[in-house]
TrEMBL record, chain A:
Top-level taxon: Bacteria
Protein name, per record: ABC transporter substrate-binding protein
Leucine-binding protein domain residues: 25-359
Family: Belongs to the leucine-binding protein family.
One Pfam family recorded for the sequence: Peripla_BP_6
Alphabetical list of SUPFAM superfamilies matching this protein: Periplasmic binding protein-like I (SSF53822)
Keyword Transport: yes
UniProt keyword list: Amino-acid transport, Signal, Transport
Any GO BP annotation: amino acid transport
Gene3D superfamilies xrefs: 3.40.50.2300
Signal peptide: 1-22
Species this chain originates from: Solidesulfovibrio aerotolerans
Keyword Transport in annotation: yes
Automatic annotation (TrEMBL), chain B:
Assigned GO CC terms: plasma membrane
Keyword Cell membrane carried by entry: yes
An MF annotation (GO) of this entry: transmembrane transporter activity
Keywords assigned: Amino-acid transport, Cell membrane, Membrane, Transmembrane, Transmembrane helix, Transport
Family that this chain belongs to: Belongs to the binding-protein-dependent transport system permease family. LivHM subfamily.
Any Pfam family: BPD_transp_2
Biological process (GO), any one: amino acid transport
Name of the molecule in the record: Branched-chain amino acid ABC transporter permease
Entry superkingdom: Bacteria
TrEMBL record, chain C:
Any one GO cellular component localisation term in the record: plasma membrane
Predominant cellular place of this UniProt entry's protein: membrane
Gene Ontology MF annotations: branched-chain amino acid transmembrane transporter activity
Membrane-related topology note: Multi-pass membrane protein
Keywords from the named record: Cell membrane, Membrane, Transmembrane, Transmembrane helix
Location of this chain's protein in the cell: Cell membrane
Protein name: Branched-chain amino acid ABC transporter permease
Tree of life domain: Bacteria
Transmembrane regions listed in the UniProt entry: 32-52, 64-83, 89-108, 115-134, 162-181, 212-236, 248-273, 285-307
Annotated InterPro entries: ABC_transp_permease (IPR001851), LivM-like (IPR043428)
PANTHER family in the record: BRANCHED AMINO ACID TRANSPORT SYSTEM PERMEASE, HIGH-AFFINITY BRANCHED-CHAIN AMINO ACID TRANSPORT SYSTEM PERMEASE
Upper lineage: Bacteria, Pseudomonadati, Thermodesulfobacteriota, Desulfovibrionia, Desulfovibrionales
Amino acid sequence: MPLQTILLALCALFVAAGPASAAEPIRLGAVLSVTGPASFLGEPEKNTILMEVDKINAAGGVLGRPVEVIILDDETDVNKAVLAVDRLIKKENVAAILGPTTSGNSLAVMGKAAAAKVPLISCSAAEKITKPVNPYIFKVAPSDRLAVARILAHAKTKGYKKLAILTVSDGFGQAGREVLKELVPAEGFELTADEVFGPKDTDMTAQLTKIQGTSPDAVICWGTNPGPAVVAKNRVQLGLTTPLYMSHGVASKKFIELAGDAADGLLLPAGKITAAAKLPGTDAQKAQLVAYATAYDERYKAPVSTFGGHGYDSLHLAVRAIADAKSDKPEAIRDALEKIKGFAGIGGIFTFTPEDHAGLGPDAFIMLGIEKGDWVIVGP
Amino acid sequence: MFAGAPQYIVSGLTQGAAYGLIGLGFTMIFNTTGIINFAQGEFVMLGGMLSVCLSVAGLPLPLAIVAACLATAVIGGLMERLAIRPLAGAPPVNAVIITIGVSILLRGGAMLAFGKDTLALPAFSGVKPILAFGAAIQPQSLWVLAVTLALLAALKLFFTATIQGKAMLACACQKKAASLVGISVARMALLSFAISGLIGATAGAILAPITMTAYDVGMMLGLKGFAACILGGLGNPFGAAAGGLILGILESFGAGYVSSGYKDAFAFIVLLLLLFVKPSGLFGKAGVERV
Amino acid sequence: MKRPVIGQSVVQAGLFLLLLLAVPAALPNEYYLSICILGSLNAVIAVGLNLLMGYAGQVSLGHAAFYGLGAYATAIATTRFGLPIPVGMAAGVTLAAAVAWIVAAPTLRLKGNYLAMATLGFGIIISIVFNEAVDLTGGPSGYVGIPRLALFGYTFESDRSYYTLMAVVLALVVLVALHLMKSRTGRALRALHVSEKAASSLGIDIAAHKRFVFVLSAALAGLAGVLYAHYLSFIAPASFGFSFSVQLVVMVVLGGMASVWGSVAGAFFLTALPEALREFEDIDILVYGAILVLTIMFLPDGLAGGLKRLGRKLRRVGVDHAG
């Protein structure tokens, strides 16, 4: 008797579940560094994904089904990222994975996602993620090469000849340093100094003093908060006037807040979203960018950053692929992702091909300056 | 050859004074309880974070800093009362693990309460550098050095001229004997945690305008402070201060003349070599081993 | 004195292995298997560190460095120099042991907190080298493309097979540790823990014994590092820093000093805890810290001591009922 009861109950469940399955949510997973050293990236990514999922579902979801994103925090730790991806693939059975936030974590989990044939859209920038192309791995953050190229183009127009670099000794800084050491001489500049600082360092006057000794025309500092803000302050304290370029790693209002008056006159390459309101009205993306910035500001009472944009792009690309594929099967999503053309995201216009899983062109960056605590657009 | 040396000395002394203050906090607790307090760095973090938050909330800067330091002293006292005292009789390594647990709690609490952003505190008297001896000196550096000296003098006075201070010294020398002559060792332990919270928070507050602060700065600063007091000889407050200054100078010269990437390694190599030659630090007494 | 001590350790380790091998059958999905693999890796290091800390009474706040040396050595040997994996693994363990042997002589003369500082400094120096020697280690962004473990023509491709391997390795390590502690060397180590002077007056060569156990525990950490690198096929310096060294010490103390089983329990407990606390979302770190503090407060002799007392209490209750 009990066995029969159980069987009956199971049948009843299946019958009940049958018609409901039409509105069963499409499950996506996200592995983001919401805490830990990279939380300044992961937190806006998480906020943006939560906000955009609500927007997508309010508009009827995709394929007539709501979207559900299971967000796991990897605490900026490699092992936790691996466990999180395992959990998403093996326990939660997600259709695609958004993130991880950092390059190191992305490189560490790529193999797992590819082996399980689940597409992964990384929010990080390292070129190694999509070069060589892995069929299941995509990324949305623009490569550092594009940012460096923007800085060097600007330096050329100013007639600078000698450049010094000061980079942070973490994954972000190292990636920048490698590209800088390659492109600075290749573009015909002389590299006078190559200094580094630790991610938790609190005083860079020693490095700046040493750099000043090599009398460069300009200094390029590559790092994420708070290091570059310390560099900016130390530069003022030492009374240096050599022009200072920053990287897109500090392209947020937070940096201006931290560096205070010392931020005045600094230059950096940044995604268009950073100064969305200042874009010329002719810019095709302006309306979309301003709408996102306003919505984010309203919901979270915090200024937008390019980083949140990576969350936006990874989510919307996945959803667009699901719509194109008319399926939430991981392999179908992968095939559809590879065919996406001219998708207007926050970070730029994405066009994926079987040979290019990064999808962005050089127009992803514009050159910004800081004046009286606000952004000014100084060049394309 | 020695280009930039004056600048390196100024930077090194500023950083070093802060390391010394943090080391001083370690020493206070170690002397009365024999515990290495891994949450010492979190006291520094709390000093900085609370100062910023209170001043943003509208308190005038000096008041915000005093309030932050007192609040951290209370937290230090609470830590002793709630987490350390109940352990009485357990091996010291357990107490050390407890301090690690408390540091995780304080860091997590600060993250939830103040957020994950790095915060800046305005400099006490402007940022216009003073140019002297070929170096640019920030006014805040002078504040750091002056406050460190003042705290050292106050401690000296406390240990030599007050009954509480003398009682604390007695605990450091011989716990059992101290309790036999009527000193409450438990109260001294409480006091030492509170004072050490106060010193740590002061270091955090005076350093914040130069280095900025965030919920996760404590671990690295705590580490440097621990290195400072080992360098000077554990148990000797003035050794800790001197150790801090030496460590700061080593780092700054390491960054300037060796390699900025290896500057911490350079400082630690010197520290290790020194320990191999003098196993109980520069100013430490050679330990007497009980059989 | 019981005679068949060695037989006893073999039986214990054998039963432990059977238990470990039975675990996957009880798991609902393979995600839990990944936690078990990381848990056994940590357990291998913790058991080794406990030999040093719990038995011989020498602190190390730098053991993550040996873990990292093992991992990087095999990574570089197998990818850059194209050496076979077993050679890379041997290189990893040997490098960790050799570095430990060199460091041991000056370092182990130091005592207590000075020893802690020296090992801490050593760990930091090594982790800075991992970060800065970019040409060799790939720097902060990590080392990619390490091959998955393959031995005697068999590739441990699935997590299930890797876990089986880890279970065997962990059981062997436990066996070695149990056996060692019952041997003459184990007794000598415990003697020098209590009093170096007394031990040396009994004719125990203090320096040699300390160095032996330090090298052994470093070699075990190196072994874990080697297995970690070939499991994840990606390593980054952040995994081998000061905070991991501290975590290892916490595993040992939380598990129970001078208890091999305690270290195993401590390692699995601390590896699984953060995953279990995911349900708490934002406040998970507070819960983690609170559990740490409360465990030490209420189980001063660690998980091992707690379990032992629980067992005794149950037995007593059983006796009461029987009587």
